[in-house]
Structures are given as structure tokens and as C-alpha cells.
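Table S7 (text form). Paired inputs.
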Amino acid sequence: MTEWEIHGMDFTNCNCAYGCPCQFNALPTHGNCRAVVFVRIDRGRFGTVPLDGLAFASAVMWPGAIHEGHGTMQPIIDRRADAAQREVLFRIMTGQDTEDAATIFWVVAHMCDTIHAPIYTDIAIDVDMERRTARCEAAGIASGRGEPILNPVTGAEHRVGIVLPNGFEYTQNEVGRGWSESSGSVAMRLEDSYAHWCALHMNQHGVVREQAVKGEAVATA
């Protein structure tokens, strides 16, 4: 298994109501799951292959809950990646070179019956986790935007997050609402539904968690 590690940001919009029951091991709001995901890698490597500054995205759907399987996934990879980078990004996002069930990418890929060949295109990701805003585009295939949830009475921004100390995607996120579209083999349109922002820091063993030991921070998977 090749060692790899990525640090970056994730913006995900799915078809569930705000909060997303899947985050709590409950069934999805509408009985099925559809999502558009954008990932920006700020720093990363796969073995000796550098991944700094690259991005990838996906459109994925399941006829029922994710854990029931039978999903379909369309991987989308940054056109700027060279041949080696394209190969290893596909390996990461499809759960290869990863311990079983250790990352969100492993889970998503292994719950899909069909994973289409990746599409290579320009990907732009502009996200602000603190403000809960996002504008993302994979040219010609997918787009997404995110905004804060608003109080229905006052119109004020409502801030809420989810804490998952043992999560396989994040330990804490910011929740908002999103709008997304995708075309092609996995086409969908999502409107004013669950969205989240999270910092990604993971490797082949899973999420890297910071722990304080004798006054020093050390990373553990």
C-alpha cells in the first residue's frame, strides 16, 4: 500500500434536509442519496507524486441509503494534473491504497456498483468555511454553491456544525445549504438542501487527528 496524505477543503451538497440524517446513522430524508462533492488539495502527496494545489470532484447517487449500496459515481479530476497525478487522484477518490472503511472516499466507492471513467476538466473551488460560502465549478459537468442557513423569522444567519470525533471524513464541520447541478452519466439538480464544509486531513489510515501529548501536538490516524 502506497503512503499518501492530503490536507485541504471539502464542500459537499446532498439532497437531504439541513442536518442530513446520514451524519447520524439514520435513513436519508427522501429515501435515496444524491450528492455533488468538491475537494481542494492545499498540500498533498501520493508516494513521491506531489498533489499540492490540485482538485477533484464527483457526482454520486444511490437508490436508497448509502450503506445499502448499488450507487453510481462520476469521478471528475483537475485537468492540470499530469498523467501520474491523474492516476493517483483517481486511486485516492476511489478508496484504493486505503485501509478498509478508513476514509469517506473508500466508503463511497465501495458502495457503488458503477464507477465511470474519470472526466478531466478545469475545476475552480472558492470556499470559506468560516462564512459558510462556496462557489465551485467543474467546467462542463458540475457546479455547486453554498450559503448559510437563515433563521426563518429574523433572516439572520444560523450557525451550526456537526462533531464526529471518530468520523471517516472530518471531526467537525460547518453546516449550511447548497445548490448543485451535474450532467452526463450522473445527472442531478439539488436545490436548497444540506451542505457542509470541512477541513480534510487524511491518509491511507483515515482522518489524521491531533492529540496533545506532554504539551506537544502529535498527529494520529
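Next pair, protein 2 of 2.
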Amino acid sequence: MPIRVLLADDHALVRQSLRSLLEHEGFEVIGEASDGQTTLEQARSLDPDVVLMDISMPTSNGIEAARGIRLSCPKTKTILVTQYEGEQFIAGAVEAGVKGYVLKSQTATDLINAIRQVSRGEVYLSPRISALADTYREKSEYSKDPLTVRERQVLQLIAEGKSTKDVAGILGISTKTAESHRSRLMRKLDIHETASLVLYAVRRGIVQP
């Protein structure tokens, strides 16, 4: 049985290139998504073996989508394919249970090896990411994000410039509920200005500047 893969990237050309590569190598690409929320929905409905996704995606970034997939689809493995290698991204990936981290500067062979390793239940980290991940694990001063998955989704959408009404529509919740999430996350973070929320989201790697 071929390894069944779901592709998630907000650039259509990237998805097309990955699909061509993976199908040539004998993988079965069962779906594509261009944002984090759709990625999670497709993972739930298609039950892929592996999800390949970028970190930077609208509505819910790859790390947040990975958190949701780990909870909803425990047999599905996630691999980040990204250009980002900052501590905040690695920390988020480790905490989200990501099983693979491949830099876009790596080769196609590296990516293929990563998929095969992860599908066998192993972990694949780019050599550069592996060293940084070890450093992160040894550090204790990096505080955990106190927000829930939903609150991080709301924070990302706010940081993307969405209004409370927009947030409600995108997440399929009432405007009152969206406002409640916004108020609660601001209290948790002790941040009371939108500009400061955006800065926090950037520092945490929830959105990119």
C-alpha cells in the first residue's frame, strides 16, 4: 500500500511541484489544502498517513494545524516543510508533536526520506533543526504559551487584520463567542492593544512579519 499524503501550502505552485514529486516516487496524494483550517478538516475526513505542510498559512498556521491533527487524528503524522528555523517555530513544533521538520533549502531526496522515516514511526529533523531542537529542550526559560488552540486561532486571525465579525465567520462561531475568545486571550496575556497582540503573535511564530 502506498503512503497516503495530504499536501498543505498556500502557494498552488508549491503544491503542484510536491504532488508531481511524490507521485513520481510512488506516494498517493489524496488531497490538497491552502490554509490551516482546511488542512485540519481534510485530515479528519481523509485520514492520511502523513500531512506535509508549511508553517505560514492563513486562518491557522501549520503548527496550530499540527496540534489539531494530533488530537483529532492520532495515527496521522505531520511534517513541516518550511523556510523558518527560528527558536519560536522549533519550540512550537516540538510542543505540537510534529514528527518531521524539513527546510525548503534541503533536497527532494531529504524530503522523500523524511516521509518514509516518519511513516515508519520515526522522527526526522533537518540536521540544523535537530541541533536547535536539542538546545530548546535544554532551555527552561522559554515559557509555554498559555492560550488554547482556539484562542491561538483567534489571535492569528486578529494579527492578520481580521475583524471580530470576520473571525466569527471564518471559524464558524458567533460574533459574541469570537469577542469572548478575544477578551479572554487578552486577559491571559495581559495585553490590551491590538498592536501588542500582533507583536506577541510574531514573536511566538503564530504569524510572520
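Residues 175-189 form the longest helix (15 residues).
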